[in-house]
Design goal:
The protein is of the alpha+beta class. The chain has five domains: 2-172 and 222-246, 3-Layer(aba) Sandwich (Rossmann fold), CATH 3.40.50.300; 252-398, Translation factors (Elongation Factor Tu (Ef-tu), domain 3, Beta Barrel), CATH 2.40.30.10; 427-500, Alpha-Beta Plaits (2-Layer Sandwich), CATH 3.30.70; 503-624, Ribosomal Protein S5, domain 2, CATH 3.30.230; 629-705, Alpha-Beta Plaits. Helix 14 (644-653) packs antiparallel against helix 15 (676-690). It is globular. It holds the Pfam family EFG_C. Residues 398-412 have a biased composition (Low complexity). It comes from Kribbella voronezhensis. GO terms for molecular function: GTP binding; GTPase activity.
Length: 734
């Protein structure tokens, strides 16, 4: 039986979860359609999801369409939970992008579609809520073409818009307009089709055109558009038929080498870790030993495979399927898994070590997850990536913005890192327990939450005894607070959120400290040169010394400390993209006084290199110079026309850069850029400025150099920028 792993994506409130319910009802998985308002849906199982009527965690539910098993992944629409969407993208074969017929294309819709297109995930569009007042039908297709993608085609016509009787009628072989529209669209990617049509238009049958439409949809070249209503059920039958016809379902290679990708981790009732795995090839059975994250191995103790609704206990899971695995205690989101006997290791996010002495230099390249398979049909090897033609690499380190976003975890070298399809969190806050006695328990609880959402980026300030978490928005605070109280019995408070900036290098800088040469108190020679690198390229560490010039453990200590040092640049912000070359190396060989045992005071250790490297790095960074960049949002603001002047004045005070407004008689639209730090302030001011009649949408767009006072972040290390202070902490002396 073929399998299709299908994602349902949308802007918040477009009706995504309601559509999921309607699809499950239509295929017979449920007997009654659940309601988001009543909190009775299948995929929104968290108490807070039911209370607020929004999806927070991605959920998987399975059903059959003829001979195809569809694993449907319902993802959050709220931008605060975009990390959940990101984790799902790497395991999808296809997607349905849901758009409201009333609101049309919204900020999050653009972000999602841009990412789906870049990852070449086959996507059909479903225009929902035809029954609502103000709904638009075929006329909305022009908006889709202008704002989302030019390669869209309406698959039918609508009727009785804005009423409970609103319907969708699919085009057929007698609709010549649809036939010509298919020829026009498909010929953009098929010159032979155009030549055939020019020579003899009758040679192109309707069935042949539908076949080519399916082929190009499966290659993510075109995007068919369906219309309907999840509430009334209109158009959902046609959508199901379209999913079966147009999106790629595959058999998978059940007898191939084991390869899978972990896209979700949760804890069971007894606290046991449960990994959600998409299988790309091979078969995993209970009691099999698996390898992940390089050298970690564990035995699978139980398997539940998604099928006909929920996950059912099974003895094995095969290629194409999604399953829950028990027994992998050290597993993390983003890990690729393989059989212990043939998995050579590698992790997402590691950087390469390059050397002039290439013979025998062990490469540790990003995404070298052996055995992970591509989502492209027929690809036996490669990464858990949806990118066409990608043979290797566990996941793309691209971000959601083509104009400067920093992909999440890019280049961090962290095991189990994530792919960075979207922008990283732009806010952070300090979290603290209400009861001081809960401090230790809070750390344990936050560590478990970080397993489920690595992008909260736990950051500990041991100097000030504070814990930071990263956020996409203020709603995340409520989710974390509710989860900690409900699941762990810990009440917490948050400080006001602050914006997360980054630093970029201005130029090239170098520094060196020599062994046994004052003022270097360490038995080590370290020379480093830092250079700017392209946006989103991550951190690359390379050697310009012979690999055998000193023990590899010392080189590894320098590399690891370089990555740690780049988490806090000259102004305290992370430097996500740069190249670091090791230009000098040296050490004191193992030795001791005559007739005595080994004396580490006379011999270099890895600790010497770990302690010296931050000083050299900071000197090199200061020589290069850095600029602080702040995150910018692109916004669209709908306001009463008579309030335009007051709103423009407020935008100016908030350092926004608006474009020329589109003025109309009663309602005007403003678009432009605004610092992420000012979005929340704008939201607070708008009700008074617009009599509560404004609609604001915003999404991360890029990073921009800070103008005005340079923001700094308090350091959480021993401050290698201040040599005296640093040595006092490290050596307990100056």
């Amino acid at each position: 039986m073929r399998t299709l792993n299908l994602g349902i994506l949308a802007h918040v409130d477009a009706g995504k979860t309601s559509l999921t319910e309607r699809l499950l009802y239509a295929v017979g998985v449920i007997d009654e359609v659940g309601s988001v308002d009543d909190g009775s849906t299948q995929t929104d199982s968290l108490a807070l999801e039911r209370q607020r009527g929004i999806t927070i965690k991605s959920a998987v539910v399975s059903f059959a369409i003829d001979d195809i098993t569809v694993n449907l992944i319902d993802t959050p629409g709220h931008p605060d939970f975009i990390a959940e969407v990101e984790r799902a993208l790497g395991v999808l074969d296809g997607a349905v992008l849901v758009i409201s017929a009333v609101e049309g294309v919204q900020a999050q819709t653009r972000v999602l579609m841009r990412t789906l297109r870049r990852l070449k995930i086959p996507t059909v569009i479903f225009v929902n809520k035809l029954d609502r007042s103000g709904a638009r039908g075929e006329e909305l297709v022009k908006d889709l073409t202008d704002k989302l993608a030019s390669e869209v085609i309406a698959m039918g016509s609508t009727s009785a818009l804005g009423t409970p009787a609103a319907g969708f009628t699919p085009y057929g072989r007698d609709d010549t307009g649809f036939t010509f529209a298919m020829i026009d669209l498909l010929s953009e990617h098929d010159e032979q089709l155009l030549e055939t049509y020019v020579e003899n238009e009758k040679a192109l049958s309707y069935d042949a055109l539908r076949g080519r439409l399916a082929e190009q949809t499966k290659r993510a070249l075109v995007h068919p558009v369906y219309f309907g209503s999840a509430i009334t059920g209109a158009g959902t039958g046609e959508l199901i038929a379209g999913i079966r016809e147009l999106l790629p379902a595959t058999e998978g290679v059940a007898d191939g080498s084991v390869a899978g990708s972990v896209f979700k981790v949760e804890r069971g009732p007894a606290g046991e870790k449960i990994a959600f795995v998409r299988m790309f090839s091979g078969t995993i059975r209970v009691r099999d030993r698996l390898r992940y994250r390089g050298d970690q191995e564990a035995k699978v103790t139980a398997i539940s495979v998604f099928g006909n609704g929920s996950a059912l206990s099974q003895a094995e899971v095969s290629a194409g399927q999604i399953a829950k695995l028990w027994g992998l205690a050290g597993i993390q989101i983003g890990d690729t898994i393989g059989a212990a006997s043939n998995q050579s290791g590698g992790t997402i996010g590691a950087t390469s070590v390059q050397s002039k002495d290439t013979s025998g230099a062990a490469s540790n390249q990003s995404g070298s997850a052996t055995g992970a398979a591509s989502n492209q049909s027929g690809s036996a090897t490669g990464a858990a990536s949806n990118q066409s033609g990608s043979a290797t690499g566990a996941a793309s380190n691209q971000s959601g913005s083509a104009t400067g976003a920093v992909g999440s975890q890019v280049g961090s070298g962290s095991s189990g890192g994530e792919s960075g399809y979207f922008a990283p969190p732009t806010l952070e806050t300090v979290i603290a327990p209400v009861r001081l006695s809960d401090k230790g328990n809070l750390q344990v609880a936050l560590s478990q939450l970080a397993e489920q959402d690595p992008l909260i980026n736990l950051r500990q300030d041991d100097i000030r005894q504070e814990t930071f978490v990263s956020l996409y928005g203020e709603v995340q605070k409520e989710v974390i607070q509710t989860t900690l109280a409900g699941e762990f019995g810990i009440d917490v408070t948050f400080r006001e959120s602050t914006t997360i900036c980054i630093e970029r290098l201005n130029g090239v800088g170098a520094a060196v400290e020599f062994n046994k040469v004052d003022p270097n108190p360490f038995l080590a020679t370290v020379g480093l040169r830092v250079e700017p690198a392209p946006v989103n390229s991550g951190v690359t560490f390379r050697l310009e010394v012979e690999l055998g010039s000193m023990p590899y453990a010392f080189i590894k200590a320098v590399e690891e400390t370089v990555h740690e040092s780049l988490q806090q640049g000259v102004y305290g912000w992370q430097i996500p993209d740069c190249t670091v070359a090791m230009t000098h190396s040296g050490y004191s060989a193992r030795q001791s006084h005559a007739h005595a045992v080994f004396d580490k005071s006379m011999s270099s250790t890895a600790g010497d290199f770990r302690q010296l490297t931050p000083l050299v790095m900071m000197d090199a960074l200061r020589a290069a110079g850095t600029t602080v960049f702040e995150p910018m949002h692109r916004f669209q603001l709908e306001i009463p026309t008579d309030t335009t002047r007051a709103v423009l004045a407020a935008l100016s005070r908030l350092r926004a850069i608006p474009q020329v407004p589109a003025l109309a008689a009663t309602t005007s639209v403003l678009e432009g850029e605004i610092p992420a730090a000012a979005v929340y302030k704008l939201e607070q001011q708008l009700p008074a400025l617009t009599r509560g009649e404004s609609v604001l949408e915003s999404a991360f767009d890029r990073y921009h150099p800070v103008t005005g006072p340079i923001p700094t972040r308090a350091r959480t290390d021993h401050n290698p920028l201040n040599r005296r202070e640093y040595l006092l902490h490290v050596l307990r002396r100056v």
